[in-house]
Design a protein that fits this description.
With 251 residues, this protein is mainly α. It folds into 2 domains: 155 residues, no CATH class; 58 residues, no CATH class. It has 9 helices and 4 strands, in the order H-H-H-E-E-H-E-E-H-H-H-H-H.
Length: 251
């Protein structure tokens, strides 16, 4: 007579247990529970690398800017306000740091607008009987305008060459590239809600970076508390300070 077997979940597990060697059981992987802020923490690590690259490039940018200052072309004399410009109708120069006035703000207008003068030898009668003189090209004013524009163009071209030679052009392009990456990471960090203190600490580190570092957070908090009392900004600085301290203590 055939023996009837009643198969249950317990019997299956018992059979499996008997057939699997203990070494295989010991080698079975143990899966840790995913951190509630795993995505935010991963973004935080990416952002820290991005911020470090941005800070390093800013040092390179500052060095390139210092080199540029050494080789930058002087401002052409033609760009500065000259005696007789007013009588030619060339006006509107703005203040320069050397105490003089120059036309760097008027280049587009001087380039595009022909210089004219009134010619009272050509008079016509207006609709109400008034005398209207003709406006004719002014060669002297046009020559001065052309001189200003030409000097400006040569100066700008020389600056471009100097910026490239100093490494400023490359540093600026790299700054824009890194800043875009950093901004995108900060956007993602800002949009993901933090669920743990570790996640909040990521956002606190981003804020501290904007302020100039963790030491600056401490000094800003003390300054705001002394000058303004417990305002909203003071409390925000206190929260950021505390989150940064928690991270330091847990390290």
């Amino acid at each position: 007579m055939a023996t009837q077997f009643h198969i249950t979940r317990r019997s299956i597990l018992a059979g499996l247990g008997a057939s699997i060697p203990m070494a295989a059981v010991a080698a079975a992987p143990v899966y840790a529970e995913k951190h509630p802020d795993a995505d935010l923490l991963a973004l935080g690590r990416q952002w820290e690398a991005s911020a470090a690259a941005l800070d390093a490039n800013r040092k390179a940018f500052d060095a390139a800017e210092a080199r540029f200052e050494q080789i930058a072309p002087d401002h052409p004399e033609e760009l500065f306000e000259q005696k007789g410009d007013f009588s030619l109708g060339i006006v509107g120069a703005r203040d320069h740091q050397n105490g003089r006035r120059w036309y760097v703000n008027r280049i587009d207008e001087l380039r595009a607008k022909p210089r004219l003068k009134q010619d009272w030898s050509q008079v016509t009668e207006g609709p109400n009987g008034e005398q209207v003189c003709a406006w004719v090209p002014d060669p002297n004013a046009q020559a001065r305008a052309d001189e200003i524009v030409a000097a400006y163009d040569l100066w700008v071209a020389a600056r471009v060459r100097a910026e490239k030679e100093a490494g400023l052009t490359a540093a600026y392009a790299e700054e824009e590239r890194l800043a875009k990456i950093d901004s995108d990471l900060r956007q993602r960090i800002a949009l993901i809600p933090a669920r743990t203190m570790e996640g909040l600490a990521v956002k606190a580190r981003v804020y501290a970076w904007f302020m100039g570092g963790e030491d600056e957070i401490e000094s800003e908090f003390a300054r705001h508390l002394e000058m303004n009392g417990p305002t909203d900004e003071t409390i925000m600085l206190a929260m950021v300070r505390d989150l940064l301290r928690m991270k330091a203590y847990s390290a």
